[in-house]
Design brief:
Blueprint: E1 2-6, H1 19-28, E2 33-36, H2 40-45, E3 52-55, E4 71-74, E5 91-94, H3 99-114, H4 117-124, H5 131-134, E6 145-149, H6 153-162, E7 168-173, E8 188-191, H7 195-198, E9 204-207, H8 221-224, E10 232-235, H9 244-252, E11 258-261, E12 281-283, H10 294-314
Parallel strand pairs: 1-2, 1-3, 3-4, 4-5, 6-7, 6-9, 7-8, 9-10, 10-11, 11-12
Length: 315
């Protein structure tokens, strides 16, 4: 089985595959040979010999160049990253490992807001000793309520990291599932149909949703007015899920306490975005999954999936 790896990114070093990744696959999967490419030209030129492609992007036209292709695997978590109409016998898989990294960003943002660290940083620029000013922002994660909208693999990791702090969790999904074993009697899973009923109880509303039509503007002015004024909003899924104009209005008019956004409808964020200049808003540039271990986790996940896939082929 021949695997072609073309995973390069001109901005984020952690998103570039290395010789170590190639060697690990060949060591753990001795029935596989691996080629590592640093440009699309050489990758395309060798698609004729490729059984499995590990890529960030794949063009529809390239299928004609790959008669042996059986599997396209991408580290991207979102199925909106690239779209091709592939034959049914070609597997297309997406990364499911991101939650381990992204959850740390969310917990960091929660603690930054809820323990007053974010606000202390703002006062620090003014050379103040703001004990009185910081007090309204000092709360405890223990006993606070996290409503996680999109309780998939990423949402599950956020909840798993939050539980040791003593937080209460409500996971929101399209369909009911059995609660994970780390839930206690204060935690629950609800469906999206019950979202409005739980929003008034949220201290932290966390969005970990995919980018599809069903999630467009799911959080808008009406729903932002349902959550308490003391609530913080976090989005690490896809930018389409929040109406950005409505969120900017909510921040500027104290309808919510603050927000952390890692994803946006248009990226990079436009300089004329209504979000820029909003109070109590923490922005990161779609970087919540960046980590030196990013592709290590992807390669480990791919190896596990390959073993299962190859086992089925052998049956």
């Amino acid at each position: 089985m021949h695997i072609s790896i073309w995973l390069t990114n001109p901005v984020v070093k952690a998103f570039n595959a290395s010789e170590d990744h190639k060697k690990k696959i060949e060591h753990v999967l001795p029935d596989c040979s691996v080629s590592l490419y640093d440009n699309s030209q050489s990758f395309k030129a060798n698609l004729k010999n490729t059984d499995i492609a590990l890529v960030w992007v794949f063009n529809q036209r390239w299928l004609e160049l790959a008669p042996k292709l059986k599997w396209i695997a991408t580290p991207s978590a979102g199925k909106d990253w690239f779209s091709i109409d592939a034959p049914e016998d070609i597997v297309i898989s997406y990364g499911a490992f991101h939650g381990k990294i992204i959850a740390e960003n969310v917990i960091g943002a929660i603690l930054g807001f809820f323990r007053g660290l974010y606000f202390a940083g703002q006062f620090q620029d003014q050379y103040l000793w703001p004990r009185e000013e910081i007090e309204p922002y000092c709360n405890t994660l223990r006993g606070s309520h996290l409503v996680i909208l999109g309780f998939g693999k990423i949402g599950n990791w956020i909840a798993k990291l939050a539980k040791p702090f003593g937080a209460k969790i409500t996971g929101v999904k399209r369909t009911l599932i059995k609660p994970p074993d780390y839930f206690d009697k204060t935690d629950k899973i609800i469906t999206i149909d019950d979202l409005d009923s739980i929003l008034p109880e949220a201290d932290h509303l966390i969005l970990a949703l995919p980018g599809d039509k069903s999630t467009n503007n799911l959080i808008d002015k009406r729903r932002l007015e349902l959550i308490p004024k003391t609530c913080y909003v976090y989005n690490i899924g896809r930018g389409n899920a929040i109406n950005e104009e409505d969120l900017a209005y909510a921040l500027k008019n104290n309808i919510i306490k603050g927000a952390y956004l890692d994803v946006f409808k248009k990226e990079p964020l436009d300089l004329n975005s209504p979000l820029l200049g909003c109070p109590n808003l923490l922005i990161t540039p779609h970087s919540s999954a960046i980590s030196p271990t990013f592709l290590d986790l992807f390669i480990d996940e791919f190896i596990d999936r390959y073993k299962e896939w190859n086992k089925k082929l052998s049956m």
